[in-house]
Structures are given as structure tokens and as C-alpha cells.
Write a structure and sequence with these properties.
15% strand, 27 helices, alpha/beta, binds phosphoenolpyruvate, Beta-Lactamase, 766 residues, binds magnesium ion, Glucose Oxidase, domain 1, 4 domains, Enzyme I, Chain A, domain 2, eight-stranded mixed beta sheet
């Protein structure tokens, strides 16, 4: 093997990334990848095979230098030949004379006699095999170590590209003239987000002005699409001119020069010509804009010049501005059918709020998992949702009839009549079950051996008071006040807050209400107060933000206490507390506000202040926290995330996120013991309370109250009334002796089946 590579792995990677970024489509990106691979790694040919699970074959999708002697598509059966060996072993295979390898199968379609050595690497993403990369070389030598490791580096990066392209439905190995034929009654798998069945129409929405989230979409009428783009471009230019004029007054000539540069790009013919060309090739304006901006940004970024790298950021900004105007128009014309299933790369609470409440029946998100806030909101609204959908572009679900199965996390596109009928009957059974459960409304949440627990609701998005009284809830265990802050494009005033809090308190007369102070950060952001961090879940969240902004905290606390006038003491709860100091400081501020109100002649009671237990530090200090405060409430969503070190929002690690992990159960046990030792009540308000399996253990752990979404409450009450505390305690003991959350799940599933409640964890009731 000859030729010494003088480039570093990093330089090679940069070069390859640049070529890939500049490619107009994933297929050309893969072709560019393979051709560069052959150019940069001394070898005679390079080939890329991708797995096609439908046919059970590896399909050759790109090659360089391979002497192909056949017209037909090159496909290799799963498991066959050296490619099959690489795939099966999921390991790098490096052989000096492949023709004499026992697994080698000669292929008449390719003249491999020209080569001797073979290097094969699996393409793996998220533990799933996506394909195989192969390099061939002349001469009976194995590929040197350094080249192997460069190839490995490139392949690991390629895996991300392939996975993304597949996720966006941009790589189709099967001839699929239309989506219907391909997906007919074939479930697209995702993660369950909120239980239930929905049959309706997919409506695609995008996060605003996010170029990365723009999917590809084919169009027929290029002329009107070009017009649409030109119009948005003109609006962006006008906006820029206005900004430029303002900048001239405020900034120096050098500082305002950037606006000149922006305007020059917007005015340049090459920019709009490039976009027009892509539109003429059948891409919609948003997609064409994304391609052009991304390609130029990649070119700038590759230049290793700090000044030009910054220009790359400017270009992205410019792209977002034009996209904003394209989307504004789209938003104006968007209509929501009667049975809307919202489909998006990444949904926000404000996108949910835009759909008239009675029309929204389902949610599909390509990102996020069951523990993301959007999924929690969906459950609270009783809307089935699936999250982290991959393997299909969201665009393929747009304007199609969809059947959504929120129990199994699946969606069917353009379903057959038979499938629709089947799901309609599941759905009917569910409604019947819910109607029967209403009969439990006035019965206590009490075990067969008379152990009582208080069932409360989580609320914040809508007025749930009617629903709460229909299901027999005993009060509010968690009011997520941040949802009020998400409704507007500015912080709500003290009075606006007062009105909202008073409405909530008036809606639950004589019932306890626990209001949580503002909990933003992590995946909950306010559009007008963005928090940009590399690691938001370990960043500026919850009480950290409000203690740093006492003006926001004091105003909110004032509005809450004022709203409780005449209604007995309010319960106020602090989010994301990680130290006694934070709890004490927040308590001091609350006492201060209460004192000021008394001095102003407003006769209100001091709220009872408690804290959420959401991080391991608070678990370990739960006794000290309980001694200082009035109550504890476990936020099991975050607690699970922090005990298990699993981002609750990341679908890639969703399988690791399990609140039934014995370590999480041990943490819960410690919190309950600490609170009771300090003589204080302890509740739990995370999604564990809505999980039919977990609830058995929460009973046994001794929580005084469980707070959940109102819709699930009758089912949870039914479970509580079907067990004895003694049985629950035996199950807890067994669960705590286990090591694997899957074993715990199985144990509890069996327990539910044994009392005839297996239907609560599946669609329908059988
Ligand atoms: C929790 O973390 O369990 C919780 C209830 O808070 P949120 O889901 O709003 O973060
Ligand atoms: Mg939380």
C-alpha cells in the first residue's frame, strides 16, 4: 500500500464535513463522503452499503473506484460475504487477502480481482446498525492502524449523518413512489408520550425561524414558490434597512457596517439565484433557503479564520430572518382541521396553545421523550402523543390521515379502513371505561385494608377545575405557574398574575392548592427571556433563576399571597432546590412579602412553604429541609433524571430513564422517611403518580398525597381501591431487592394482571 497521508484526522474530518454540508441532498452528501474517503485514505476503491430492513439486504448507495460490471442495483443479502461479517460482528474487519477469507463470496457484478485487501467498518448509531463502509486496496497488506482509526472516526461521524437523513426520511432505499404505499398499515415507531388513541389529520408546524428544523418538501408550482421567497426576501431587506438606519444613529460606522454586509448579501443575485435554482428543482422555498445558507456557512466555517467564522454566524442569522418572513405568511394561512394531530420536529407550548382547544386531538414530535414537558402537557390535556419519532420525515405525515397509538408510541399514515375500524373500537372501549370510572368519583382513594391517600391534580395550562370535580380530586398538588408566563411575549404583570391565581383559588373552594413558583430553564424557556446554555438541565433552572432575579420572584409571591386573601393559607412550593440556603433565602423573601402586605393593611395568612425534592442533594438533605419548611413534594420527573444521569428530554437515552429503577425507589423511600421523622407531610407530583405501575409502590412507600393529571385520576383511584396496603408493601420489598428496572416493571405488570387491571396499561380494555 503506498501513499502517506499528510492530513490529520481532524483536517480530514473538516474537509469531509464541509463537502457533506455543501451537498444539496443526503444522497449527494453520501457520494461526496465516499469520494473524499477514497481520495484521502490511500486505497483503490471505497463503497458504502446501507441496511434495507424491508428487503433484508445491504444496498450499495455510493462508491468510488469499484469496477461494477452490471447495470442492476448492487444488493447483498443480510449476513452474506465480508460485508455481512462486518455487519454481524459490528466490528472493524481488516484482511490482507479477502479472496481467501472463508466468508468471502465472489460477486459476478463487481470485478474484485483487481484488489487484495479489504477494510470494512460498521456504521452504527444509537446501538443500531445502519450500514457498512468498505475500502479495497491493491497489495496483500492489512490497512495500517492509523488509517483504520481515521476511517473509524469518519464512520462514527457518518453514522450521525445517515441517522439524521433517515430520520428525516431523506434516504429511501426502496423505490417508494408515494408514502402511502410504503407505510400502508405499517407502524412508524416512536416513544409513547401520552396514552390514548387519536384518529385525525396531520398538521405540520415548525419551530419559529429555526433553519435546522426545516424539512424538505416537494413542490409543483415553482413560479409561485419563487414569488413567495422573493416576497420574504424583500420584507427581510426592508427590516434590515430600518435596522441599518437605527444602527447608524446608535453605533459607530464600523459597528453598523455589518448591516451593509447583510444588505449586500440579500441584494446579491447569486444568493437569490441559488435559492431560485433549488426551488426550480422542486424544493419549497424554506428548504431551498436552508440548503443555500447551510452550504455557505459550511464554507466559511471550514476556512479556519476567526473573522470568517463569525461571518458564518451572520449568515445563519440572515437565513433565520428570511425564514421568519416565510413562516409568518405560512402561519397566517394555516387552518386547523376539526381533528388536528400536530406534527413537528420539536413542539413548543405556544404551538399547542395556538390550536383551538377542541380541535387538537393528538401530537407527534420528532424529538423529545415521554418526560419532556410537552409530553407532560399532552397528558394533562388528555391528548395522545408520541415522541422521538425517527425513520420518517415529519413532512410525510403532513395533511395525511393518521392513526396515533399513544400507548405503544406508534403512528400509522393513511391507514386502511380495517385498521381505522380496529382503532376506533379501541377508542370506544376506552371512552366506555372512562365513563364507568366516573362512578368512583365520590369514593375515597382507599386500599382494600382502609389505607387512605389524598389524590390531587397537576394543573397550569387550562382551567381544569370542572374536570377535577368530575373525577373527585381533593385539590391541586402542583400548579405550574410557568405556563402562565409562557402565554405572552413579556413577563405578566403582578395584577395579571393576581387575576390568574385568584381564578385558580376560586375554582377550588375549600380545597388545598399548592402553587409552584416560577420554574424555568432546562427545556422550559420563555420566548422573551431566552437562556442559552450548553447544559441547560444542569444550568440556570428553577429557584436559581428566581433567586438571581428577586424582582420577578417577589412580584410573583406578592400576587400569589394577595390572591389567597380570604381563602385560608396557600401552599407555596419551590422548584429545583439544591441547598438549604436556597430554601431559607426563598422563605425569607416570602416572609418579607407577607409582612409588607400586612403592613399595607391586607389581612392575608402566611403561606405554608414547602419544597420540591428533585435532585439527589435535596434527597440527602430532605430531613433538614423538612425541619425548616412545612412540606415536601417529590418531583419524580427531575429526580429520576438526576439520580440516573439521564436527560429526560433526550430520546436517545429514553430507555435508561425509568422511575422504577431501584435506585430511584430508594431515594423516594429516604424522602418519605425524612419528612415523617420531621413530622411533615410529603407528597409526590411527578409523572410517576400517573403511571398505573408506579402507583402501587408509591402507596407502599407511604406518600400522603399523589398529584397527577386529572384525566388519569379515576384509573389511579381504581388501582388503589384494588390492592391492600399489605400487598403493595410486599411488592415494594421485592422491588427494592431487585437490580434491574425491567424486573420491577414485570413484577408490577404481573400484579396488575393478577387483579384484572392489565387493561390499564394497554389500548382498549382487554
Ligand atoms: C418534576 O420534575 O417531577 C416536576 C413535577 O416538575 P416539572 O415536570 O414541571 O419539571
Ligand atoms: Mg421538575
Amino acid at each position: 500500500m503506498s501513499g502517506v497521508n499528510h492530513l490529520t484526522a481532524q483536517a480530514i474530518l473538516r474537509k469531509v464535513n464541509q463537502a457533506v454540508e455543501a451537498a444539496p441532498s443526503p444522497s449527494t452528501a453520501l457520494a461526496a463522503y465516499v469520494s473524499l474517503l477514497k481520495e484521502l485514505i490511500p486505497c483503490s476503491a471505497a463503497a458504502l452499503f446501507l441496511c434495507d430492513d424491508d428487503s433484508g439486504e445491504y444496498v450499495l448507495v455510493a462508491e468510488e473506484g469499484l469496477p461494477i460490471e452490471s447495470e442492476e442495483f448492487i444488493r447483498i443479502k443480510y449476513g452474506d460475504g465480508l460485508v455481512g461479517l462486518v455487519a454481524e460482528k459490528e466490528a472493524l474487519i481488516n484482511v490482507s487477502c479477502f479472496a481467501s477469507h472463508e466468508q468471502y463470496i465472489a460477486d459476478a457484478r463487481v470485478d474484485e480481482s483487481l484488489f487484495d485487501s479489504f477494510l470494512g467498518l460498521p456504521i452504527i448509531d444509537g446501538a443500531a446498525l445502519l450500514g457498512v463502509v468498505v475500502l479495497y486496496a491493491e497489495g496483500k497488506h492489512i490497512f495500517p492502524d492509523e488509517w483504520c482509526s481515521i476511517c473509524l472516526t469518519l464512520t462514527v461521524n457518518l453514522a450521525v449523518l445517515v441517522a439524521q437523513a433517515k430520520a428525516k426520511g431523506k434516504l429511501t432505499m426502496t423505490a417508494s413512489p408515494n408514502c402511502r404505499a410504503r407505510y400502508k398499515d405499517q407502524a412508524i415507531s416512536a416513544l409513547p408520550g401520552a396514552p390514548g388513541i387519536a384518529i385525525g389529520k396531520g398538521v405540520l408546524v415548525f419551530p419559529e425561524a429555526d433553519l435546522d428544523a426545516v424539512p424538505d418538501k416537494e413542490i409543483k408550482d415553482a413560479t409561485s414558490e419563487i414569488k413567495r421567497f422573493d416576497h420574504a426576501l424583500t420584507q427581510a431587506k426592508e427590516g434590515m434597512i430600518a435596522l441599518h438606519n437605527r444602527a447608524k444613529e446608535t453605533f459607530s460606522a464600523a459597528e453598523s457596517a455589518i448591516f451593509d454586509a447583510y444588505l449586500r448579501i440579500l441584494d446579491s443575485r447569486t444568493f437569490s439565484d441559488k435559492v431560485h435554482d433549488i426551488i426550480r428543482n422542486g424544493q419549497w422555498a424554506e428548504g431551498a433557503l436552508r440548503c443555500v445558507i447551510k452550504a455557505q456557512v459550511a464554507q466559511f466555517e471550514a476556512l479556519d479564520d476567526p473573522y470568517l467564522s463569525e461571518r458564518a454566524d451572520d449568515l445563519s442569522d440572515l437565513g433565520r430572518r428570511v425564514l421568519f418572513f416565510l413562516q409568518e405568511k405560512e402561519k397566517e394561512t394555516r387552518t386547523y382541521p376539526e381533528k388536528t394531530i400536530l406534527v413537528s420536529e420539536s413542539l413548543t407550548a405556544s404551538a399547542l396553545l395556538e390550536v383551538p382547544h377542541e380541535r387538537l386531538i393528538g401530537i407527534v414530535s420528532a424529538t423529545g421523550s415521554a418526560n419532556a414537558h410537552i409530553a407532560i402537557l399532552a397528558r394533562a390535556m388528555g391528548i395522545p402523543a408520541i415522541m422521538g419519532m425517527h425513520g420518517v420525515s415529519v413532512i410525510d405525515l403532513s395533511d395525511k390521515t393518521l392513526v396515533l397509538d399513544g400507548y405503544y408510541g406508534q403512528v400509522y399514515v393513511s391507514p386502511s379502513r380495517a385498521l381505522k375500524r380496529e382503532f376506533q373500537s379501541f377508542s370506544k372501549e376506552e371512552s366506555e371505561l372512562d365513563a364507568e370510572l366516573v362512578a368512583l368519583k365520590d369514593l375515597p382513594a382507599e386500599t382494600l385494608d382502609n389505607h387512605k391517600v389524598s389524590l390531587l391534580i397537576n394543573t397550569g395550562l387550562h382551567d381544569d377545575s370542572r374536570l377535577a370535580s368530575c373525577v373527585g380530586a381533593e385539590g391541586v398538588g402542583l400548579y405550574r405557574s410557568e405556563l402562565l408566563f409562557m402565554r405572552e411575549n413579556r413577563f405578566p404583570s403582578e395584577n395579571e398574575q393576581y387575576v390568574a391565581y385568584k381564578h385558580l383559588i376560586d375554582s377550588f373552594p375549600n380545597q388545598p392548592i399548592t402553587m409552584r413558583t416560577l420554574d424555568i430553564g432546562g427545556d422550559k424557556s420563555l420566548p422573551y427571556f431566552p437562556i442559552q446554555e450548553d447544559n441547560p438541565f444542569l444550568g440556570w433552572r428553577g429557584i436559581r433563576v428566581t433567586l438571581d432575579h428577586p424582582e420577578i420572584f417577589l412580584q410573583q409571591v406578592r400576587a400569589m399571597i394577595r390572591a389567597s386573601e380570604g381563602h385560608g393559607p396557600l401552599k407555596m412550593m419551590l422548584p429545583m432546590v439544591t441547598s438549604l440556603f436556597e430554601a431559607e433565602e426563598a422563605l425569607r423573601l416570602i416572609i418579607q412579602v407577607h409582612q409588607e402586605l400586612l403592613e399595607a393593611g391586607i389581612a392575608v395568612e402566611m403561606p405554608s412553604v414547602g419544597t420540591m425534592i428533585e435532585v439527589p442533594a435535596a434527597v440527602y438533605q430532605s430531613y433538614e429541609l423538612a425541619k425548616r419548611l412545612s412540606f415536601l413534594s417529590v418531583g419524580s420527573n427531575d429526580l429520576t433524571q438526576y439520580v440516573l444521569a439521564v436527560d429526560r428530554n433526550n430520546p436517545r437515552v429514553a430507555d435508561y430513564y425509568d422511575s422504577l429503577h431501584p435506585a430511584v425507589l430508594m431515594a423516594l423511600q429516604q424522602v418519605v422517611k425524612s419528612a415523617h421523622k420531621a413530622g411533615k407531610p410529603v407528597g409526590i407530583c411527578g409523572e410517576m403518580c400517573s403511571d398505573p405501575l408506579s402507583v402501587i409502590l408509591l402507596l407502599a412507600l407511604g406518600f400522603d398525597s399523589l398529584s397527577m393529571n386529572a384525566r388519569i385520576l379515576p384509573r389511579i383511584k381504581w388501582i388503589i381501591r384494588s390492592f391492600t396496603l399489605e400487598t403493595a408493601q410486599e411488592l415494594l420489598k421485592e422491588a427494592l431487592s431487585m437490580h434491574d428496572p425491567r424486573e420491577v416493571r414485570q413484577l408490577l405488570e404481573d400484579a396488575l394482571e393478577a387483579v384484572g387491571l392489565g387493561g390499564l396499561i394497554r389500548a382498549g380494555r382487554q
